[in-house]
Amino acid sequence: GKETRLRVVLRVRPLTCTETRRGDQRVVHSLGDGTVHVNAARHDATFGFSAVFDAGSSQEAVFEGSGMRQLVELAIDGFSCTVFAFGQTGSGKTYTLMGPLPQTETQPAAPGLLGLMQRSFACLLEQSRSRSSDLALSASYLEIYNEQVRDLLRPGPPCALPLRWNKTRGFYVENQLSVDFESLEAIADLLLQGSQRRRTSAHALNRHSSRSHALLTIHVCSRAVSMHPALGTGRGGLGREHHPHPMLVPQPSACPSKQGTLCFVDLAGSERVKETGSSGELSVEANNINRSLLALGHCISLLAKPRGKRTHIPYRDSKLTRLLARSLGGSGITLMVACVSPSSRCLSETLSTLHYASRARRVTTRP
């Protein structure tokens, strides 16, 4: 019930080969201790975050330093946990969450390049084996494309699902498919299957630009297990009197089950049509992406105000803000990963992301 601030970390990707060939200058510099300095013509600013990962940071360093392991443990303990990556298109959001694309069954990513998702799955399954609790795990995978919610795990052509609201559940997606899993291979297959169905396109800034917001949710049902003596048979006949040390076997206890969630949100990147060269359908997609991100930014700005000074939070302005309402202003625990390019050419979008992330640090929830 205590107020807790959103944890916000920053990842600065390396300059790309194209940016280096073009002669772009590096304008974002990590100063250590969670701060970055932006140094460019007419811009000289410093920003502070919970952690900053520069171009040399490994995927493992981001997982351990962001607090992702703690989020996994909190989800097992029954909390609603969310991690979402945001930033300009091509800034490294999907790479941070999932590792390099494309990933296929015949060409899996190298273990060192796996993203927050796969590392969290491994941590979750490891915790489930080591704890004395009975865990039931399932996953659902959705995308919001042109303001339509679509199920990425349901076979057949994608169709729009209705978004509902009630007092107990808040906003929820009706008829979404939830698939049980028990192994790392099974959840990796679900992630690959859903990601291949997600809408992506190529444009001037990104060969694999996500054209939708994607939400992968792991549902964790945890029930405590207690040890009770087994009523076995001994050589002398039936009954426990022949067993001075009866075998202990796990039995479900009367403890209530705990329902936790771990939700990964890969936001489509903000983009300027002039920079990406988008037209036609790509332009329509870009406008819908930017409109939903603007609605999200507006909600974050209002949530960043002290509770006594907050006005109505317009979660209903977009499907994205409705689905993130609990994560942002409710009873969840949230980690935000802001991704930026260090290139001078991306300065305007980078500054926008840094200001956005700084506001988010003032948002509080009551887990």
From TrEMBL:
Keyword terms of this UniProt record: ATP-binding, Cytoplasm, Cytoskeleton, Microtubule, Motor protein, Nucleotide-binding
Protein name per its UniProtKB record: Kinesin-like protein
Main location: cytoplasm
GO cellular component, one term: microtubule
Source organism: Thinocorus orbignyianus
Alphabetized GO MF terms: ATP binding; microtubule binding; microtubule motor activity
Compartments (UniProt record): Cytoplasm, Cytoskeleton
InterPro entries: Kinesin-like_fam, Kinesin_motor_CS, Kinesin_motor_dom, Kinesin_motor_dom_sf, P-loop_NTPase
Residues covered by the Kinesin motor domain: 5-363
Residues given in the record as ATP binding sites: G87, Q88, T89, G90, S91, G92, K93, T94
PROSITE patterns documented for this protein: KINESIN_MOTOR_1, KINESIN_MOTOR_2
Family: Belongs to the TRAFAC class myosin-kinesin ATPase superfamily. Kinesin family.
GO biological process terms held by the UniProt record: microtubule-based movement; mitotic spindle organization; spindle elongation
